[in-house]
Amino acid sequence: MIDIYVLRLPHDDPKKATGARLLRRRIAKDAKKDRPRSPLVLNPKAKMLISQRDRPIVEKRGLLAVDASWRRIAEVRWPRGVQRLLPFLIAANPINYGKPFRLSTAEAIAAALYILGFSEEAEKVLNEFKWGPEFLRINQDRLDLYATASDSREMRELEISAIRSLIE
């Protein structure tokens, strides 16, 4: 079982915050209380993309996502750990439906898990939300493609290819 951590910031209504729901349902652990040591941190400002090379980090130290408002993302102090960026994906959550890169905390966690080969855990996260299966449906081909990337450089090439296929 993969340790999933959420660092909840009080930016949004806790009833709508997907990270808060994962904490309430005990699918994720509270990063403030459990203090993971150097986990893989999902960070939209990271330089390196997530890839299969990161799987051992997640297996040993866990996966951490910050539950914050996109409107206040510049204010976030990112926790220590291995900072990674998710590749191009499209949100299915009701607030940002159809917007590229604007994933909810739950979508980001599920995407990272899926890309790293933990598809059952990803589905467990997404099944907590009515729109969760829709996220998989609209991103399935991209997620399957991204799951083959051995390193960040290869992931960048696959991401560019995925974006080009949408444009053409």
Q: Span from first to last CA?
A: 40 Å
Count of separate DSSP helical elements = 7
Estimate the mean pLDDT confidence.
Answer: 92
Q: Approximately what portion of the residues adopt beta-strand conformation?
A: 5-15%
Question: What would you call the quaternary organization?
Answer: single chain
Quick recap:
The protein has 168 residues and is of the alpha/beta class.
Describe the structure using short key phrases.
40% helix, alpha/beta, 11% strand, 168 residues, 5 strands
Descriptive notes:
- There is one protein chain.
- The protein has helices at residues 18-24, 31-34, 55-61, 105-115, 119-126, 132-146, 152-167; strands at residues 4-8, 29-30, 40-42, 63-67, 82-84.
- The chain is α/β, with parallel strands linked by helices.
- It has one domain.
- The chain has a five-stranded parallel β-sheet.
- Helix 1 (18-24) links the parallel strand 1 and strand 2 (29-30).
- Helix 4 (105-115) packs antiparallel against helix 5 and helix 4 runs parallel beside helix 6 (132-146).
- It is globular.
What is the secondary structure topology, with strand pairs?
Layout: E1 4-8, H1 18-24, E2 29-30, H2 31-34, E3 40-42, H3 55-61, E4 63-67, E5 82-84, H4 105-115, H5 119-126, H6 132-146, H7 152-167
Helix pairs in contact: 4-5, 4-6
